Predict the 3D structure of the following.
Amino acid sequence: MLIVEDHITAMQKLLSIVDENVIEEHKKYVASLLALDYKPSMDADSDTILTLQTLAYMHPFYGGEAVYWSRAILHLDVEDEL
């Protein structure tokens, strides 16, 4: 239980909360790019492309639907191996 006005402990507890559903996090990220009509050839920035490539080469069991969406955005044909 937090004591009133104990801001430091409150911030520490908030920062310790981790989103356990990484697949949904990936899905939200790629969906936001799709909503913005992101095109790698036109809107190329290295951080976004690196994130998309990381997702695209991830196995769908670990990355979810976002893996396929990333591959489609980057026009990649990846054979999944487990």
Remarks:
- The chain is about 60% helix and 0% strand.
